Amino acid sequence: MKTQLDFAKAGIVTREMERAARNEAVDADTLRDLIASGHAVLPKNRHHSFETVRAIGRGLKTKVNANLGTSGECADMDLERRKLQAALRARADSVMDLSTGGDLQALRTMYLQEAGTMVGTVPVYGIATEMVRKGVALEKMDGDVLLRGIEEQCRQGVDYITVHCGVTLASVRKLEHFERIMPCVSRGGSIHMYWMRKNKKENPLYENFNDLLEIAHEHDVTLSLGDGFRPGTIADAIDGAQIEELMILAELARRAHERGVQVMIEGPGHVPLEHIQSHVQLQKKLCNGAPFYVLGPLPTDIAAGYDHITAAIGGALAGAAGADFLCYVTPAEHLKLPDEDDVYQGVLAARIAAHVADLAKGIPGAKERDEAMSRCRQALDWDGVVAAALDPDLVQRRIQVTQDKEACSMCGKLCAVKIVRKATA
User: Fold this and answer.
1) Could you say which of 107, 316, 320, 410 has the lowest number of CB atoms within 10 Å?
2) What angle, 0 to 180 degrees and rounded to 10, lies between the N-to-C axes of helices 104-114 and 143-156?
3) Which CATH fold topology does 62-361 show?
4) DSSP code for 391
5) What DSSP string runs through 146-211?
C-alpha cells in the first residue's frame, strides 16, 4: 500500500492533503510538493480516522503538540480524559500519549478514539513499562521485542512515533568525552543507552532501521526521530554528543524518505537564547529541510513553575528561525505530572509562541489576525476584542469596562483612544 509520501512523489493529491491544505495558506498541489520533497509531513495512520488533519512543515502554520499520559505514580483514566479535553479546548493540533502507568492499551485507545487529532507515542515507554511490571530486566529488550511493540502500536492507529535511533555506539562514545552536568535527560535515550552498555551491542533500532521502515511504511506512520542526547541544561547545549546524534538522524531521515516514509527531526530541550536560531538552521541544513519538532526550547534553567513561559520564549524564536512543530511545556515541567489546568496553560503558551513565529515567518493570515484585534481596540468594540483573542473565554471573564462601555477599567475617563477622538473631532 502507498503512503502519503508515495502518493506525493507520484504527483497525486490525496483526500488528506486536500483537507490539510484547507487549514493553510497553500493549495493542495503546493502541499503535495512540500511532502514529496520531505519539507512537510502529514501524519495520518491508514487505520486512524479523525477530523482535524494537519500538515507540518515549511511555509505552513507552526503547529503545537500537547504531551499527555499517566505515570507509575498517577494513572487515572478520568484525569487523562480531562487533560485531553483541556488540550482540545486550547486547540492543540496534536497529542502524544507518554503513559507509563495504568492500562496502556486502553489509554492509547481512548486517545485515538476521542482526540479527533493526530496522536503520537514513544513506543519504548510502553515496552519498558510492561517489562518492568513483569520483572524483566531492561537489558532483555532486544530488537524483536522493540519491533513487535512498535508494530502493535502502529497497527492500533498511532499517527507518528518518536524513535531514538540516533543513540548509537558512536554517539554514546561522544557523550563519554564531554563533561555534561546532566548526561542524558531523555527517558527513551537513557533506556537505549542502558541497554547498549549492558549488552555491549549497537542500538537495535539503528541496526534494524530498514525493518522499522517497513513497519512504518505498511501503516503509513510518520517517524519522529528523537533526540536522545538533547541537552537538559543550557550549559550542556551544542556539544559533540548532540551534534553526532543530529548527523546520524540526518542519515536516517534520508533513508526514510527514499523508502516512502515521512520523517521529522526532534530538537533540543535547553538551549541558550543566542544559539537557538543557529541550531534550527543547522538542523535544516543537515536534514535537507525536514520538519523540525522542538521541545521548548528552554533558554533558562531556573524558571521552575513557569517553564511554559520559558518554553514560549524559546519556541517563538525557534519557530521564527524555521522550526515547524512546537511541543508544549507546562507549568508542571520538572516538578510533577501535569493536571488539566497545566495542560491548558501549556497549550496556550505554545500557541502564542507559534503565532509569534508565524508573524515572523510571514505566514499569510497571521498579521491579519493582529490587525483585526487592533481595529476592535480602536473602535472600543469589546465583543470584537473577545472574538479576536487567542483565548476568548479568558478575555470574556477578565474584561472590565466602564458603565457606558466606552473604556476599560484600566484607563476609564483617561482612555487614550477617547481623548484622541475628541482631539480630532
Assistant:
1) 410
2) 30
3) TIM Barrel (3.20.20)
4) S
5) HHHHHHHHHHHT-SEEEE-TT--HHHHHHHHTS--SSS---HHHHHHHHHHHHHTS--HHHHTHHH
